[in-house]
């Protein structure tokens, strides 16, 4: 409900303190020590606008909805930009407070040796702090990484008797204790305007294991949240008679949000799993 503020943070060590709670018939209960810190957030503003000449609307052919396309085009672009921001937060090793490691040479999953993704999954999940509150672990990777995993000989061998063929991501997730594996297939154009297009995958060559809250709350440890101002995104539309011969319809979509890392050690990132 505020554009910037503070929120409570809780010490991981106190959650794992294990204070003795045994009591005698006349003894006092041991008193635990609880502290509470604070963290802060500050929302960033994002928005795009577009104009649609009134003459285009009055002359549109059947099958076209120029006003709808105008708004949807803005929303699609903002959704792409948001995914880029989320992918950057998830795939940046510095956001994991040391819970990260890189693969090199024969340990990479697309090498001739094939590495050992099964061991990597288990080691990464075991290194994550479980946290408190209802949550689940998900895997996150690009379609390039998922394709390599789907045909990985070591993984296919695990399921050859029950599910022959390529390894399915839902089966792989269930086998290693993940609720699901999210596969990002989005691309972005990295070239500057006026240059030849250059497309690349947004989600890179890494694999993340992340604790996601089933029910967001202050005491529920999860890797991160998107904090967004109430009632956003906000869409505005107005008519500007100054543009063109007949004026133009203007549309602006704006929102204020921040991708905030909350509990980095509830997650693990394997970097450079592909060559």
Keywords:
four-stranded antiparallel sheet; alpha+beta; flat; 275 residues; single chain; five-stranded mixed sheet; 7 helices
- Secondary-structure element pattern, one letter each: EHEEHHEHEHHHEEEEEEEE
Mean of residue pLDDT values: 92
What percent of residues are in strands? 25-35%
Number of strands: 13
What is the helical fraction, as a range of percent? 10-25%
What is the overall number of helices? 7
**Class by helix and strand content?**
alpha+beta
What Rg is obtained from the alpha carbons, in whole angstroms? 24 Å
Q: Characterize the largest beta sheet: strand count, sense, and whether it forms a barrel.
A: 5 strands, mixed
* Strand order of the biggest β-sheet: 4-13-9-5-6
Give the overall silhouette: flat
Q: How far from one another are the termini?
A: 45 Å
Topology, pairings included?
Blueprint: E1 4-9, H1 12-15, E2 37-42, E3 44-53, H2 54-58, H3 66-90, E4 100-102, H4 117-127, E5 135-142, H5 143-150, H6 153-159, H7 169-175, E6 180-184, E7 187-189, E8 199-201, E9 207-213, E10 224-228, E11 234-240, E12 248-261, E13 267-271
Parallel strand pairs: 4-13, 5-6
Antiparallel strand pairs: 1-2, 3-12, 5-9, 7-8, 9-13, 10-12, 11-12
Brief digest:
The chain is an alpha+beta fold and 275 residues long.
Would you mind describing this structure in some detail?
With 275 residues, this protein is α+β, with helices and mostly antiparallel strands. Helix content is 24%, strand content 30%. The chain contains 7 helices and 13 strands. The strands form 4 sheets. It has a 5-stranded mixed β-sheet. Strands 3, 10, 11 and 12 form a 4-stranded antiparallel β-sheet that branches. Strands 1-2 form a two-stranded antiparallel ribbon. A hairpin with a 7-residue loop joins strand 11 (234-240) and strand 12.
